[in-house]
Amino acid sequence: MNVNTNDDRCSVNVIHEEVIDRVSQKMPDGDKMNDLAQLYKSLGDPTRLRILFALNAAELCVCDISALLGMTQSAISHQLRFLRQARLVKSRKEGKMVFYSPSDRHVTEIFEAGLDHVIE
Amino acid sequence: MNVNTNDDRCSVNVIHEEVIDRVSQKMPDGDKMNDLAQLYKSLGDPTRLRILFALNAAELCVCDISALLGMTQSAISHQLRFLRQARLVKSRKEGKMVFYSPSDRHVTEIFEAGLDHVIE
DNA sequence: TGAACATATGAACAACCGTTCATATGTAAG
DNA sequence: CTTACATATGAACGGTTGTTCATATGTTCA
């Protein structure tokens, strides 16, 4: 028999309550899901993706990345701040220049899983 | 000696030309990068992520997902359309209901790579 | 110190995104 | 045919995002 949950956001009948309960228990908690979504969102922009790809191949300064991607220094710098705050890259200062590199190996792994999907 | 690229979008000096050339050759072409960014963007929203996680555990109809996530049927339906167009889920009609499931195994792999990153 | 350069940052703006609301489509049962 | 239900969809709205422009910070060198 179908059960009506009657919560205030969804008034439709719940058709498969047992399945829902089972899935509900497996579902990671909201915070973890938000973190994961935030991670994917960070990778969800071509500029950031190209920056990360480049840094994965070599340590580069802001000016290098700017030239490599053919974009303004400002745009790159803003994105680097984003990536730094997301802990996806780290920076090292050397004189006037700041060199960036990936902050950990996980990023590379996620990259490759994604590439497999796109290539197929 | 430093080379000035002098293209119209970046007028700063290129400091490490050889490194840039090397990275430039490895860089996947723009279309592929855009596709990959689009894939990550699809995963970059908590609602879509939770839908995908749920479908990964069980085939569900729209109404089930709506109840499971505590969100309106309309919001879920819009997101499902998004996911269907991104070829991340497929649908199967059975009477009045439409059942959704993941469209391929790659999504699961990308998921897990991401979870590893977040958990650590 | 002052000029030149590398990088960072704040404001502003257009484009995009996720949800809501109202309503349409499609199916099953009476 | 009519009602009830499951899903889909278009318009609209507020919030977010990526870039640009102008400018600030910090470093090196003369």
Per CATH, what is the topology of chain A? Arc Repressor Mutant, subunit A
**Average pLDDT taken over every residue of chain A:** 84
Query: What is Rg of chain A?
Result: 21 Å
As laid out across the biggest beta sheet of chain A, the strand order is 1-3-2
Give a description of the structure:
Two copies of one chain form a homodimer. Chain A is mainly α and 120 residues long. The first copy, chain A, has a single domain, classed as Winged helix-like DNA-binding domain superfamily/Winged helix DNA-binding domain (Arc Repressor Mutant, subunit A, Orthogonal Bundle), CATH 1.10.10. Helix content of chain A is 59%, strand content 12%. Chain A has six helices and three strands; from the N terminus they run αααβααββα. In chain A, strands 1-3-2 form a three-stranded antiparallel β-sheet. The longest helix of chain A has 14 residues, at 30-43. The relative contact order of chain A is 0.11. Mean pLDDT of chain A is 84; it is low at 1-11. At the A-B interface, helix 1, helix 2, helix 3, strand 1 and helix 4 of A face strand 2, helix 1, helix 2, helix 3 and strand 3 of B. The structure holds a DNA duplex (30 and 30 nucleotides).
